[in-house]
Records
---
Amino acid sequence: MKFITSFTLTGLLLCNISVMAVQVSQKAFIDNMVAQHGFDKSRLIYLLSKAKVKKSILKIMSRPIGKARPWYKYRRNFITELHIKKGVKFWRKNDRVLKQAQRTYGVPAEIIVAIIGVETIYGKNKGNIRVIDALKTLAFNYPRRADFFRDELKHYLLLTREEGLNPLAQKGSYAGAMGIGQFMPSSFRRYAVDFDNNGKRNIWTDNVDAIGSVANYFREHGWQTGQPVIEATQVRPNAIEYLLALKFEPQYPIWKLKQKGLLYHGNESNNTLGLFIDLKTEIGTAYWLGFKNYYVITRYNRSKRYAMAVYQLAQEIANRYAQTY
Amino acid sequence: MGSVGCTVAPTPPPVINTQVPSQFPPTTSKGQPQGIALTRAPRERISPRTNPTVRYAPKKRPSPIDSRNYMARGVATWYGVKAHGIKTASGQIYDLYGMTAAHASLPLNTRVRVKNLKTGRSMTVTINDRLYSHTAIIKLSYWAARHLGLTKRPSQKVEVRVVR
């Protein structure tokens, strides 16, 4: 009993301290926005007071990372009949726009379709949390990545001002990712495009703008049209350790990797830059050689499993699309 | 034939002439060249490559017209993770998540519908490799085999039809 009371007491104390810290950092944030971007102070105070701190978001974010889900389990969530079927449907519906995006930005249609499929199942799971709630919660109550989310909150306030949107009305994921392509506010400001030329960058309900924005994001991150994304490779068992210790960046020419024990049989020139990838399958670990385009997919979400899922879903959708025409 | 002989031994012609018998290449009673066409396929290998010096002749080799109506029932096997990344006979790299298969005789890039005769489940795969086997008629990529529900056992009966 005694233990419990003392525990709750310290809990309250900690709570008070953190509340104070939140108020301090929020005040600093508002002052900064007023000084640097010319916002109205009372308006900002009003907006932030209307935003709620969501405990559920903090709960999700503080989940122990533990053992990462192996690739073969991760894959089951994204490469499903539903994703493929809806992907083909989405492709047919937006065929003209996807072709135009392919021409303008050089990003293949299936990759755009797969990204939108993995992110929101073609607009089905766009997230139902107010962006301002999510960003306020994470910017001031989640110290581990507070800087990042404070920056996103800044971009969010700027973008709603630029686009003439109501900051209290926009919805997104629990981390503040918005719309069909799940753009973070900073990405929206840098990469979103008005692809149907109607004067608005609407990535929430306008498939055309969402498609153009995803394609532009890829082009800006250096998508190489017509180049390979990823290829299976064999590897000498004694080289695995060395290859896995390499950086996760396509900065190693194939000749160098081959020297170190990679047994790659592809036709790419020996100077092509690649990176080594291992993923756990049901029947053992398999190895791939990723190229620049694979790395570009990881810019959308920093995960080798994510990029692989996008690529494989793209293949499946392209296959089905070709078969059922 | 002459061109094949040349690729086998690109040494100066006079040396070859002294080594080979008077009748080269040696022929069977039917007039087919020996040593070029193997009557017996070698044992199944993990890494079959196209070898320009040896031409494998499976017993039944459907002509292009035949292959359009090709249908066969037999045992299917599948590639494991060890084969992931090998070069197939078509030059493509085998990926365990690909929808591909190896076949003894059908032209490369032929698309075939494979049906699991036990469950009735079927799917389309592309032939991109050569198969050297006395027991199996087709060797599926891991994901194709898994999709058909074949991976719980080493081999199972399937039906193969060419998709037109």
---
Amino acid sequence: MNKERKNSARILTKENKRIIMKIEHYLESRYINQVAGKEIMSDIVGMAIECQERGDSFAEMIGSDHEAFCRELIRNSPRQHIHERILHVLHWFLLFATCLMPGLFLVEALMPGYFPGCVDGLFFDVKLSYILKYYIIMLVLVIGWFIVRMHTYKPTKYVFGLYFAVFMLFFLFTDGVLAFIMNDTLLHINILIWTLAVAALLVICDLTRLVIAMSIAYRKRKSDN
Amino acid sequence: MTFDKSQLMRGTLEGCILKIISEKTTYGYEILLQLKQQGFSDISEGTIYPLLLRLEKQGSIVSKLLPSPLGPKRKYYSITEEGEKYLASFINIWKQISDSVAVIIGENGEG
């Protein structure tokens, strides 16, 4: 988003911010080219600010059906390249992964014996099956995150209900099953190195995605001229 | 059962927006006001913004951010050479269709 518009967005009312956030979530889940998506969001923020300054209703300005408005935007916007799409999913996976291991480490440090493992300084000893279990659950969380965003305009109760049911199903399924079928290995992880490594991967993933998105947008503009 | 106006509106509006932009460099809200003045009373900025995106994507118009008296910089649109050709083609097709429809329905819409 253009810096000037980003700063101006602060003056938006709570209701207008909520409408813009919903549009952003919906568009993000529909694989629009990252550069084009940012430009669209910047335009929408600009429209909302002007609308507010004129004293008009932004909700009415974009029409009675906000989902239809988003669908029209998607129909007329460049889509993500397959590599950009893969990196988009990987971004969320790595983001959750960056938080997961330190999270588990913290739980074990605060409640020793919660996992079949132990914390020793910066080292985390834990069984592979347990780590695998939480990564599978994390994968469900990432997929669920996408599903929730894709259904931004559906009734919240229905979407979250479905998400919670699937999440619990996986939680119960993985609990114990992996420990039962796996020949367990004890992992010896330096939590600091692990976190830094995954965070570095996340940065590389985001930069690569941005470069791909920019090159597609640049190529598109060049072919237009 | 009533006729679905949106189907008819989509292509027509695109041509009208392009015609307005061809007359002078303008921005979304000004286009909306002009369209409303000419009788497109039930359209909103939300209807025309995706069409502007489409026209920009196909290279018929280009945009530029310029200062605005209301808030941040505003996006102004101007027509390209490609857009001029597209508009000429739209006007030509529109004339053919409206003439044919006028013959079938009647000039006053009396059938």
---
Amino acid sequence: MAATKETKYSICTVCDIGCQLRSEAQDGKVSRVIAHDNPALAANICYKGTAVPLIHNHKDRLTKPLKRVGERGEDRWEEISYEQAMDEIAAKLGAITQKYGPESFAVSTSGWNTQTTHSLDRRFMNLLGSPNWISGVALCAGNTAAVNRLTYGWFPMGDLGSTNCIVLFGHNPRKHSWTPIYNAIRAAKARGAKVIVLDPRVSDQAEGADLHLRLKAGTDAAMCLGWLKVIFDEGLYDEAFVRDWCVGFAELKQRVDEYPLERVAQITGVPAEDIATAARMYAQADGAVIPWTPITDQQLSSTSAIRLHSILRAVTGNLDVVGGETLGGFSQTYIPESEIGLHERLSPQQKAKQLGYDDHPAFTYRVAEMLKEPTEKVWGFPYADIVMGCQMANPTSVFRAMVSEDPYPVKAFFCLGNNALLSYANQHQIHQAMLNQELIVAHEIFMTPTAMLADYVLPGDVFTERNHVADGWSWTTRLALSQKVVEPPAEASSTFQFWTDLAHRMGLGDEFPWTSLEDMLDYRLSRGGRTFAEFASETFMELAPPKFRKYRDTGFATPSGKVELASSVLGDLGFDPLPYYRALPGQSEEYPYLVFTGVREDPFFQTGQRNIESLRRRMPAPSLYLHTSDAEREGLIDGDWAKLSTPQGVVVAQIAVHETMKAGHIRVPHGWWYPELRGEASLAGAFISSDAVLCADSDEWLDHEQGVPHFKGFPGKLEKTTKPEQVTRTTAAHWQADQAVEAHAES
Amino acid sequence: MTKRASIRHRYLECKAYVFAHLANRMFKKQMRSKAATVSAMPQDT
């Protein structure tokens, strides 16, 4: 009898957290995705993971290359062969970069979705001469990594397994969102760890927290300055560590003194005594962590706020200690993407053309170059591209240049695994930017509004269709195995293949010698003296034995070799070397609410999965969340439709009234569009409910140092309206249930 | 840091180091037993 059923280890890429689980295939199709068989990993699966067969076998998967035949955005296509598509793309890209210069080529991508690019995109761009690579990590995690490096030279990972205190700045891991973090927090609480939540609303994590501070959206930096004021005034900091390993303490203390608790209470809306209690709880814990949060990433004072998290970790003695936050460094057995990207091959002249380099340099090559020497000294390689985020162009600067051709034209735009139109601030500008392109290429698993604007759409593969060894993009020191269990459909292929094939067509083939993904994995694993086949037969995960307080041997990877409480890099660039709070532009009578966007909902990741029946069923329409008192004042009830306007734009969504919301705030979920409206509404309803329409990216709304737009607390107003005519499937009954997903979601 | 806390940290550091080694051995053992199970299954003919 033939054995046609197969089970292999996988790393899920439906969201960014990368749960390790198992995929089953039967008769060439993924039939089931189930929990890992190791007890330590078995709880790390959400219902999106259970829905993977529905995603990967979906009837609308792109399987053939498409070439535009109508007007841009008209969504009319002809199928062509992969060879023809690649030949034409290479010829057109060559002509554009010849005419306008290599910097006229920009790429927007999401490493979470594409998984196995192995930095070949950066390698290709660096060899071609373009610095203009952007990604959603500019708004989330990647930018945090870059800003952390300013203070102590790496991006630490919280030791949730041993910590005694967890501080969540708006971060809200749940059973079905950021599941492994949720499970780790639960385990920590079970052994007595304290949890402090700072969130305007009563989030799931806030409900179970030891302390919940309901701060006003967008005031994280002020809150942290208040904590430092308490910690310094009451002598709760690690004096020996500060004396021996920090620079700039006196200046910092002077800055912190500008923020007495009364002032901080006024800015944040949190009583002074609660701020003090939280600061004491954090500082006095024997091992405390402030895990990465997407909330602090996206504020007007984001650079300062992220630096303040770093500073809190350092001055309380929680840096690179057990139960605190560990600095991992590069893997010693797996060649990191930082090396594969060949950043050293991009000339200084081209690096200086990177959009954002002059105005908002914190995560651009400008800062990467300033940290090159200490990074090589401490970590052994000069370019530490942690979470892909440490030498990016600034997205706003790229889109502005695409529209205005100032400071130079950007005329070719590739989007890989990235629905760029809905993924950054100021969606109307991104639309204009894309309409002003001579070549747009999308590499996707489904047709998206962004792909509809392309000249060529190439079908992408998914995680069950490829082999991989994941290293958390250099953020973790763990290697994890993901195995191919089925073949990609028809002509679908990986981004690894795309960049390799393009390079060979553009005369860069010698620099792309790898013949397959497995060949690339062999190369990367060669640092540990193994092949992929050997690794995959040996283990499904490998942990690097931790080493703590490594700075005692090497110092920190900063210009001074110390923790820079006052950042020499920011000072040299003409910015304030000390952290500060920048007040939000004032609210007005016309726009009485504080709107916060970018919020993640359990059934979806970013702009994805709205076409998956069983997931959409769990959230059929986008919701605007507001407090009962605000709903009463506006004459709105649960289920009404409302128009939310900001000075930047207008969207329509359904009202969800919650006691848990903070009065005066409106919460908007991220990334909504309507795949079911393809062919009925322009770009499948991409402008009806998308939060990116609401977010401004004019200078007054950008963080100074990174140029990150402010998503957490900008002015808005509400008005009752009727449901848009085209939007019809707005109840669960309109969407088909799946037994496995339902069972897991309700478990 | 108090002496007591310092000793506790040392203990936890050693524990973390040993845990990584033991976990790696356990993962390998699990993988080997899985491979043995698969090879004992009926194969395509």
---
Amino acid sequence: MTGTLLFQSLVLGVLLGGLYALLAAGLTLYFGVMRVVMIAHSAFLILAAYLAWYFHEQTGIDPLLSLVVTVPLFFAVGVGMQRLLITRLRPVTLTMMSVLLTFAVALFIEGMIGFVWSGTQRRIQLPYSGDSIEFFGAQIAVVKLVAFGLAALSLGLLYLLLKHSRFGQALRATIQHREAAQLVGIRTDRVAGYGFGIGLATAAIGGTALSLDATIYPSLHWHWIGPLMAIIVVGGLGSIPGAALAAMVLGIGQSLLQVPLGTTWAQTIFYVALFATLMLRPQGFFGGRLAQRF
Amino acid sequence: MALVVGVALVLSFPTIAPNPYILSAGIVVLSYACTATAWNFMGGFTGYVSLGHAAFFGLGAYGTGLLIRDVGLPSFAAWLLAGALVLLITIPVGIAALRVRGASFVIVSISFVLILLLVFQGWGSFTGGSDGLVVPRPFPDMLRPQHHETFFYLFAALLTVMLVVWWLIDRSRFGTGLKAVREDEDKAQALGVPTRNYKLVAYVVSATFTGLAGGMYALWFGDLDPIFQFSIMLGAYMVLMALLGGVRHLFGPLLGAFIVGTGLEYFKLEFGDTQFHLVAAALLLGAVVLFMPDGIIPAVTGLVRRFGPQESSIREVTAAELLERNGGTSPVPQPGATAGSDGSRTTSEAAPPDPNDEEDPR
């Protein structure tokens, strides 16, 4: 492997890792607030990508502008989903049953996408789709850079929201200890609903970013959910910094392995990391008390 | 009684099936019943929901096919050996997966299917990749309807073995330990149930039976493709069937498999390649999880009990009956009598006894 090629894959890995980080942050947020493994996360991701594609197809405007619609829409859907579906489950079996419920939602979305837009592979053609810029000898496609920028920006906003706002404090308190949060006067139900909405909003942003340079089809979400779930376990369930860091490391790892092994085998790094984590440190590398119990 | 009728119906199905297609649909339903019952060894007893049991189905199927093709074993020897291989593979996987509970366990189970899908698609020279793997038929000189009929009985036999084993575990000390894990794992552990080993054994038994069902499917169907063998959908159907019927009941998964399997065959026939079966399965799964998490069997028995006699929450019991039930030793106070006699207790013959008297007879 030459130095340039290595550098190129490293840069691509960072760009990919950024997108993974944003999506894994959303996934870990659901787990934090509700102890729910949201299998439908990547299905919503693909749905957002389809909406961006459809928006571009119908209006011809840049698909990034579809975010104006999809982000609030997904936020509302997330709040509604938490309120109307997740809270109806019995608390004792919530974790297991919510997996099945969100699995059903994922199947429903996949089926409906296939029904409405057919199973054909779709791709957005943009004027700058083929453009790339040179960065210390590495060729970086502009669309990947835009996607990364979008992911990094949203992740930064999410960080600011969680660390420096009253709502963020309430949300983190809910994640840390629900009953204690209730005792100090936080309306945990409402906060959990908003947390769910924010998680789904990350899927909207990620999906739009994904639609810029990926070919999309209804069953694509299965290729995303596995790596994302592996990331949140490796990072430690419920830990957002852990998820972001694990996403970066594994994204770079996947990108580097793609050169000698090819795309299919490179994807196994996520599962190898998952099994290694379980054997060495079952609670994940950044997870605390919470991770092992659920 | 119902059991005898059910067995008779299953055994006579090949003779009353109007055409080979219906018979083959019957085999598919029966193979679903096998996988769902196998899943229930883990899901029903311990409450650990595995969405990745398709992995063991696929391993059993591919193991059988590859052992016949590359080693040249006779069909059913390959089938048994593939089952043993699945057993050996499951032990390390189970140890890794059972180090965590709940959510992480589900994630691991799904990941195991996805990793095997990648491996079997990527390693084309060994597994045939996406081109598929052709498994030689075990009875080459049989005609198609005869072949179907034989395999119908083979699947029925496998299912019977599974049901008997499930029934035995259900009444054993081991089964009680597993159910204790399901209800409260920490308490079970505190009471001295070796939870990890119990869970591991249940997981291995469940996986091995799933593998055997997969191997049988491979021998019957004769053509394997990673997409269909290592499909998350297959694992999800197992969960759906078991939950729909009722995971705590011996025949729950079988009933669920009958309903879901028949429905799936119908959807395939009516709507062909559209995505409708996904939507239908999704809606059914959502409805079961939200409204009927215990399954049909408890729901129906609950309904029957509700409309049956003597089970309403407000009971009408006459004083005489109550007297009889209490052993006839102490006379029962009658509220109406005291209220009506405006306090003149001494004059009334049927006066309630003194509080002191009430304690006496016991």
